[in-house]
Specification:
three-stranded antiparallel sheet; two-stranded antiparallel ribbon; globular; single chain; about 10% helix; about 70 residues; mainly beta
Length: about 70
Amino acid sequence: HVRTPIRELATRLDPAMFWQIHRGALVNVHAIAAAERIDSDRLEVVLKGSGERLPVSRAFAHRFKEE
């Protein structure tokens, strides 16, 4: 369990390697297997290996927009 506030933790990590995807979640970009749209408003990332799915908040969904 990490007690450091996520905002502070995010400033200590390489922003090219660790993305905040939700107010309570940072993820290593190399751990992302896929980003899947659930519906028009919701997006989830699927983690490599475990297949665990994490919600992406609207505030951070721009990271996954297709060019």
